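Regression test case RT-17, inverse folding.

Input:
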């Protein structure tokens, strides 16, 4: 049974998944949105994590929160749940615009995004729209498949650059 309420998006995270909060506490609180979501388990990078689909910022988001060695949340990743967040677009500029539009929808909750930048990766171009604090929207353009996906990221894995 899913809660009809929306989870709050703040500069620290989404709903009960907030940077610095004990993962076990967030897992318990997440159950009010989805009783099956309070499970803690190893994620793909071996950090303990929880996952849930939440209604937040006017859309459905698939949200994962990962804990560091201290068992507190150090990173939160959210992607639009509809269509797994990936869309087919004409070119990199369309992907950048798609990311800018997503960042603009979050502005009422996170403040205006700061100047965007591009990170060149081996198979993608990442357009990064940072907000104040440790929050950013990333739209990734994959030229080979003409696909663009969106990511809302809070914090980052310890020892890695955001």
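Golden output:
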């Amino acid at each position: 049974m899913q809660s009809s309420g929306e989870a709050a998006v703040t500069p620290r995270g989404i709903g009960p998944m907030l940077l610095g909060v004990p993962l076990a506490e967030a897992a318990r609180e997440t159950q009010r949105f989805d009783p099956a979501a309070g499970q803690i388990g190893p994620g793909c990078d071996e950090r303990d994590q929880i996952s849930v689909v939440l209604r937040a910022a006017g859309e459905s988001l698939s949200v994962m929160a990962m804990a560091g060695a201290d068992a507190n949340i150090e990173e939160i990743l959210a992607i639009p749940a509809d269509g797994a967040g990936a869309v087919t677009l004409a070119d990199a500029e369309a992907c950048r615009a798609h990311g800018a539009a997503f960042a603009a929808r979050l502005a009422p909750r996170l403040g205006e995004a700061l100047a965007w930048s591009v990170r060149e990766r081996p198979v993608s171009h990442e357009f990064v729209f940072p907000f104040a604090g440790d929050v950013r929207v990333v739209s990734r353009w994959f030229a080979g498949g003409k696909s663009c996906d969106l990511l809302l990221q809070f914090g980052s894995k310890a020892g890695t650059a955001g």
